[in-house]
Design goal:
The structure holds two protein chains of two kinds.
Chain A lengths: L25 H6 L2 H36 L5 E2 L5 H4 L1 E2 L3 H8 L1 H21 L1 H12 L4 H11 L6 H11 L6 H8 L14 H26 L3 H9 L4 H26 L6 H7 L5 H4 L2 H11 L3 H30 L6
Antiparallel strand pairs in A: 1-2
Chain B lengths: L1 H18 L3 H32 L3 H5 L13 H7 L2 H33 L6 H13 L4 H10 L7 H4 L6 H14 L2 H9 L4 H9 L4 H17 L2 H6 L8 H10 L10 H47 L1
Helix pairs in contact in B: 2-15, 4-15, 5-9, 5-12, 5-14, 9-12, 9-15, 10-11, 12-15, 14-15
Classes of the chains: A mainly alpha, B mainly alpha.
Organism (chain A): Acrocarpospora phusangensis
Keywords (chain A): Cell membrane, Membrane, Transmembrane, Transmembrane helix, Transport
InterPro entries (chain A): MetI-like, MetI-like_sf, UgpAE/MalFG_permease
Chain lengths: 336, 310
């Protein structure tokens, strides 16, 4: 029953021990060719192959064919001819993009926003989880957890609307509060310098509680004996956080950081587009919003694909670099 | 007297142990609690402000007098939200998208995750790698748009149901659940009884997978309810707009609502406009809010599976 083929990728459930039958006809299985293995699997699971064919078709149609359609980034796309028959133009679209003065601003805006977002939204859930872990179980802990978790489920449209209302120069409560200190009404969304802060801190507001849940689970998994031993050795609370809790959640933190960086360039179109207005465009125009406008509003498919492809490649490179660095430094990566 | 004397040390012992905690540690604990209280306030106060404003009179809202409690209590805003046909249509559409989308998504996710969880399923590692690759590198907006256009989904309800039907993360969660939570003996017993692969899935595995199905259904429902991007890109027909697009048009773009109104009505609408937004925020978040206790529990479980297996 058991295959002894090595797992090329350390997939999520590849290492579970108990479910694997103890007896392994290792020598026999190794001799068996891949082909007969496939045949046997088909005989056993042909219904499951049919079942899986529908989702596989989904991944081909909506994920892999679009990847192939990226060829139009190297073509002069004509809707009449379609992506395959359109004329090749080589790297012309990219040359046009890189020589466009807008491009530098675009890249700068995207990178600054992305780095700022990771810098703020990576450590804060860890701090929140460490703090929650220090206090005893009770109504206060439960309340803080439930309340900070809730904004994660509010839609982006609603969060942006709330932001606009709360920060409104005329009736918003923030400006009402500032009035008490004699600070005149500030049009937060109209000042371009506020865009990044608004974007990042509303994001932290929305996701910190959700992020903390994962770290709380990791903290709960730390052996209490370690804390007991540290207490007996006279470690203070802060020392126990530093030398017991932090190393305990390190593996989780590394994975979360890799995932955060991996999503960096895929930074939310949704929110940036909603927060955009003509006054803050100089800082709020990022690659995803530019792709949308170029492609779907100006209908320049080739150019938009070129920008999108550039973005995806940069993103993939960032992910691989961080994964490599994490593996070097901590011995852990996405694929271990 | 003797009983009180005897019980006294027993009562004080835990207290004595607590007193021994050094001063520094107690200070740390106080600081931690203060920080958490501030965090709580920062998250909660905007929400309270929105709810309080939605329950206040238009005049009070427009003069900026509302803090964290309704001023001149009024339900006018809610009445006008619930009598707006555009909003009701959006609500109805979103319900359709949420229910149909969830059904499709959960079915497809199980259909791929279950075979992938079977250790004797040939090719599962290659397949899983190909799935995970789509998380790392996406085709991009325009190429995906071209596919949706080519197969004729543009401006149909399917455009919101199909292109993002399966989440790879959800597949990982489901696969991990099937592999770890269903005892291997059950598969063997079911096979000995002559059940086919599908029969085993339907009669043995799925009845044991209700917690998983709940997690998946909630995740997909919340996603479908909250997303607006696909609708923005693929839909032009206002009759198909989900609630989030309607919200965006009213809340952020501030476009005048359809239907001709006379001057008096228009004046009234301008007065109502601000307070209506607050009410709209509350009404649109209500379904998720009602489900929140379930969501909180199940999302945590789902997050755990993901976190454990990275």
């Amino acid at each position: 029953m058991s295959t002894t083929t090595p797992h090329p990728v350390r997939s999520p459930s590849a290492n579970e021990g108990p479910a694997r039958p103890p007896r392994r006809p290792a020598a026999a299985a190794r001799r068996r060719s891949r082909w007969s293995e496939a045949k046997k699997s088909w005989r056993l699971h042909w219904q499951l192959y049919l079942l899986a064919s529908v989702p596989i078709a989904y991944f081909i149609i909506f994920k892999y064919i679009p990847m192939a359609f990226n060829v139009i980034a190297f073509k002069d796309y004509s809707p009449v001819l379609g992506p395959w028959a359109s004329d090749w133009v080589g790297l012309q679209n990219f040359e046009r993009l890189f020589s466009n003065p807008v491009f530098v601003d675009l890249l700068k805006n995207t990178l600054i926003l992305a780095f700022y977002l990771v810098l703020a939204s990576f450590p804060i859930p860890i701090l929140l989880a460490l703090a929650l872990n220090e206090i005893r179980n009770g109504w206060f802990k439960r309340t803080v957890q439930m309340v900070t978790y809730a904004p994660y489920f509010i839609s982006t449209v609603v969060v942006v609307s709330m932001t606009i209302l709360v920060l409104s120069p005329r009736i918003g409560i923030v400006n009402e509060g500032l009035k008490l200190f004699g600070i005149g009404p500030i049009d937060f969304l109209g000042e371009q310098d506020f865009f990044r802060h608004i974007y990042v801190w509303t994001d932290v507001w929305q996701t910190a509680g959700y992020g903390a849940v994962i770290y709380l689970a990791a903290l709960a998994g730390i052996d209490p004996a370690l804390h007991e031993a540290a207490k007996i050795d006279g470690a203070t609370r802060l020392q126990r956080i530093r030398y017991v809790d932090l190393p305990g959640i390190m593996p989780t933190a590394v994975i979360m950081l890799i995932l955060a960086v991996g999503n960096m360039m895929a930074i939310g179109f949704e929110k940036a587009y909603l927060l955009q207005n003509n006054l803050n465009l100089a800082q709020s125009e990022i690659i995803p919003t530019y792709v949308y406008k170029t492609g779907l509003i100006n209908a320049d498919f080739s150019m938009a694909s070129a920008v999108g492809l550039f973005n995806s490649v940069v993103n993939l490179c960032l992910l691989l670099v961080v994964n490599f660095a994490a593996k070097r430094i901590t011995g852990r990566g996405l694929w271990r | 007297m003797t009983t009180t004397l005897a019980s006294k040390p027993r009562r004080t012992r835990p207290a004595a142990a607590k007193v021994r905690e050094p001063l520094g540690d107690r200070m740390v604990l106080i600081v931690v609690k203060l920080m958490l209280a501030v965090t709580l306030a920062l998250v909660l106060l905007p929400l309270i402000y929105i709810v309080a404003s939605s329950l206040s009179s238009p005049a009070a809202v427009n003069s900026g007098r509302v803090r964290f409690w309704p001023v001149e209590f009024s339900l006018e805003a809610y009445q006008s939200v619930l009598s707006n046909s555009e909003i009701l249509q959006g609500y109805y559409n979103s319900l359709i998208y949420a229910v149909a989308g969830t059904l499709i998504s959960v079915t497809l996710t199980v259909a791929i995750a279950y075979p992938l969880s079977r250790k004797t399923f040939f090719g599962r590692n290659v397949l899983m790698t190909l799935l995970i690759f789509t998380m790392l590198f996406s085709g991009g907006l325009i190429p995906t748009y071209m596919v949706v256009q080519d197969i004729g989904l543009l401006d149909t309800r399917w455009a919101l149901l199909l292109p993002n039907a399966i989440g790879v993360w959800q597949v990982i969660i489901a696969r991990t659940f099937f592999a770890n939570s269903i005892p291997e003996e059950l598969y063997e017993a079911s096979m000995l009884d002559g059940a086919s692969g599908l029969r085993t899935l339907w009669s043995v595995v799925l009845p044991l997978s209700k917690p998983l199905l709940a997690v998946l259904a909630l995740m997909y429902t919340v996603f479908q309810w909250n997303t607006y991007f696909d609708a923005l890109v693929y839909l032009k027909d206002p009759d198909l707009f989900p609630l989030q697009i309607v919200l965006r048009n009213i809340l952020i773009l501030n476009t005048p609502r359809t239907g001709a109104v006379d001057l008096a009505q228009q004046m009234h609408q301008i007065q109502l406009a601000n307070v209506l937004r607050y009410a709209l925020i509350v009404v649109s978040s209500l379904p998720v809010l009602i489900m929140y206790p379930f969501i909180a529990r199940h999302f945590t479980k789902g997050a755990m599976v993901g976190a454990v297996k990275g």
